[in-house]
Every structure is written in C-alpha cells, then in structure tokens.
Design goal:
Blueprint (H helix, E strand, L loop, with lengths): L4 H17 L15 H16 L3 E4 L5 E5 L15 E6 L13 H16 L7 E6 L13 H6 L5 H4 L9 H7 L17 E9 L4 H5 L3 E4 L1 E2 L1 E10 L3 E2 L11 H23 L3 E11 L5 E2 L2 E10 L2 H22 L2 E10 L2 E2 L2 H13 L4 E4 L6 H5 L5 E6 L15 H18 L11
Parallel strand pairs: 3-4, 3-5, 5-16, 6-15
Antiparallel strand pairs: 1-2, 2-4, 6-16, 7-14, 8-12, 8-13, 9-11, 10-12
Helix pairs in contact: 1-3, 1-12, 3-12, 8-9, 10-12
C-alpha cells in the first residue's frame, strides 16, 4: 500500500517524539534534566539523527548541539555564498516530571525543514543550522537558557562558577559535554551574518486551541526575573517553644508567599498586561516534624510584559519583606539570580511567518508569550521570531502535556516556507497531501 507524504511525515515526527521522550527517569516521566545521563543519551541519539539527515554536527563553546546544512557554493545569481546563516531550533531538556513536547517539538520540526529540503533537492544560499540549545529549563544552578545566553554573551563567569548541592560546577558540566566556556562575555562572533533565528514551540496555554487557530505568531517574550529569598529565624523544639516566642522562618515565608500572590494579582488586573509572580521552589531547614523551622530558602520567578509593572512589583515587594522582618522577627535577604528583559520579535520575520502560514492554508493569529524561550536571548543579537502550535487544554510542564503530530507538521510547513522565502524564493506552500 502506498503511503501518502503527509502520513509519512507525521509518522516520522511521531517516531522521533517517542524516541526522545523515552530518554527519561524511569520512575518520573518525563524527566530529562540537563547534564543528566538521560540528557546525555538523548543528545547522542539526536546527533545521530542530525547526521542521518546529512547535517554536519558539532558542539559549540557554550554546549549547544548544532547540525549544519552547508550553503550551496553559489547563489542563484552566480555570486559565492557569503557565510550568512539561518538558525532553527529549540531544546530537549525538561523540568522534573515534565512533558513530552516542550522543546522536543521545536527540534523535530526543525529537522522536518531539513527533510523537506533534502527530499526536494533544494539548495540554499546560506547555511542552515539546526540547534539543540543547552539547558533551556531552569536548573539547580538557578539559570535557564544556558546555551542561548552563551550565544548572546550573557553566561557570566559568576553563573559558570556556581556549584550545586552535589558539588558540580556549572562550567565544568558544560566542558564535560563538549563545550569550552570560551567567550562567555561576547556575543556569537558571526552574529552579523545571521539572517534569522526561528523556533517552534507548543503554546503552553490554550488560546490557539480555544479559538481554533493552527499557528500563533509571537509578538514578544516577557521579561523574566528570578530572585533567591532567604528567611532566617531560630530553630527550636516544637513542643517546648512558646508560640509567642517563636521565630518561625516557615511562617514568615508563608506570609511573603501570600503577599506576593495578592500583589501580582492586583498588578496583573490593574496593568491589563501579562504579569505573573510565583514561588515554585522552597527548601525548609531543618525540615523536621518536631522542629520549629529555622531557615527557608525559596525562589521567586517574576515575569512581566511591562517595565512599569515590574518596577511597581519590586517596590511593593521590598515593603513586603521589610514588614515581615518586623512582624515575624526573622531576617529576610533577597538576591537576584537571573534576569532577561522583555524581548520583542522581529517584525519582518513575523510578517514572513504570517505569509507562510497563509500560503499553506493555515489560520494564524498574533499573541504574546507568557513563558520564556531561547529565542528571547537570540533576539538580542539577531533577527528572531517564534511560532506557537496548539497544546491540549494548555497544559505544559506536566506529563499530561500533549500536541498532535499533525500540529507539529503544520508548524514545520510554516518554518519551511519561511526559510524558502529567506532564500529569495517566492512564497510557496509545502503542505503535504
């Protein structure tokens, strides 16, 4: 029986998604933390998949896995290729107990662009780089988007020198997988030759699904700011320490958490723009059932599409911490961990992607991202854009996360048409029937 091109494409996508998803902690799917054995194994498989597609693989100084499809020696007008390039990619690491599609879908869609070019024997006048950006998810070193930060010259010596609870230094881990940590304070040296940085990602929300659209053209990625909050009180016996005499660090931390939630809700409502603040990680010491907690360490994740909202939050947050010190007789210290400012997407690329969706018969809308992505850092040194595809019920960062193979294929069509347009070819549909 003859298999249609569309069926063959979705089957190939399904097989790749299943294979990458299989690299997970057995008792905690889907968990593939950066630098873990599962991550290393997935990287090896992906490098083989890149090579099978005819890509020349290497790991750059920041630990990014890159597969390159080299430009045709001559452009259509007879001039030699000028070293320009287009980057398409995402990431394969996950959060603990995350999903099967976050990041993976973008890497596999990028590979589909290569498959289309190969199957149709299309040469490009620029290099095409398919990238697995290192460590996009927040990790135990307190910084996300390691690989794309490195390309943007934002992976500082202080970040590289951080050591986790097991004594692993971040810089050493990057070296172990093939990076060199060189030039961490410099933007990628060939940045002026990059025509576009493109990424496909699941939406991680449900606007596309609810409104029945195939593609979301992202207008901007919000600023993301993380702070470490340390609350120090005095540990004591839970049975003998009077309630009035306690310096309970966990109670103080709870006050801060509740106040942050109220404040963020008020700002989001008043500003009428995307604003969220979350305490999602918390460690309690000594963490015993019969001990008054003496110390709490937690991480604040704040995301804002408005500089004004960010400033208003930080001013009020300072007051929250100061009031907590007085009320609970505990010390509160706040230290910045990471920051990434609001990243608008390139308007020309957004239009290119919109035209690419239309010519493939797909419905597309413009929307802002609520989550951070590698594309935010790439946009700081080159034209960049990102498209979203629908995910069921908007669920993400959980095992229930789901995007259909057909949705990934549609996103790949848009990326492919965009690449062809960047190559100077007329906009053309690549949808497979």
């Amino acid at each position: 029986m003859k298999v249609s091109p569309a069926t063959a494409q979705t089957a190939r996508i399904a097989a790749a998604i299943d294979k990458l998803a299989s690299f997970t902690e057995a008792d905690r799917p889907y968990t593939r933390l950066v630098f873990s054995p599962e991550f290393d194994a997935a990287r090896h498989w992906l490098a083989d998949a890149f090579a099978a597609a005819g890509l020349v693989c290497h790991i750059d100084s920041g630990g990014n896995l890159i597969g390159t499809r080299t430009a045709n020696l001559k452009k259509a007008n007879g001039d030699k290729a000028d070293g320009t390039k287009v980057l398409i990619g995402s990431h394969i690491d996950t959060v603990p107990a995350g999903g099967r599609f976050d990041g993976i879908a973008g890497v596999i869609a990028a590979l589909e662009v290569v498959h289309y070019l190969n199957e149709n024997q299309i040469e490009l006048p620029f290099d095409l780089e398919i990238v697995d950006y290192l460590g996009e998810e927040l990790n135990v070193w307190g910084t996300s988007c390691l690989g794309s930060r490195h390309m943007a010259g934002l992976l500082t010596p202080e970040i590289l020198g951080r050591v986790d609870a097991d004594g692993r230094q971040l810089g050493n881990e990057i070296t172990r997988i093939g990076g060199t940590n060189l030039g961490c304070d410099k933007v990628r040296s060939d940045a002026d030759q990059i025509l576009a940085c493109l990424e496909l990602h699941i939406e991680q929300a449900k606007i596309l699904e609810t409104q029945g659209h195939d593609i979301g053209i992202v207008t901007a990625i919000p600023g993301i700011y993380r702070y470490g909050i340390s609350v120090k009180g005095q540990a004591g016996h839970s049975g003998t320490t009077p309630m009035a005499d306690r310096q309970d660090a966990l109670v103080a931390a709870a006050d801060i958490i509740q106040a942050i939630n109220r404040l963020a809700s008020d700002i989001a409502r008043d500003e009428n723009q995307h604003f969220v603040a979350t305490i999602g990680k918390i460690d309690v010491f000594p963490n015993g059932a019969a001990i008054v907690p003496g110390q709490v360490e937690m991480t604040l994740d704040m995301r804002s599409a408005s500089a004004h909202a960010k400033s208003a939050f930080l001013a009020a947050f300072e007051t929250i911490c100061r009031d907590c010190v007085t009320r609970r007789n505990c010390a509160v210290d706040v230290a910045p961990l990471a920051a990434a400012d609001i990243a608008p997407m390139d308007s020309d690329l957004m239009q290119n992607l919109s035209d690419s969706a239309a010519i493939n018969g797909l419905s597309a809308i413009k929307l802002a991202s609520g989550a951070g992505h590698d594309t935010a850092h790439l946009s700081r040194f080159a034209p960049a854009a990102i498209i979203f595809i629908p995910c069921r019920d908007g669920l993400s960062h959980c095992p229930e996360e789901f995007a259909s193979n057909e949705a990934i294929a549609k996103g790949a069509w848009v990326l492919t048409s965009c690449v062809l347009a960047l190559a100077g070819k007329p906009f053309q549909a690549v949808a497979k029937q």
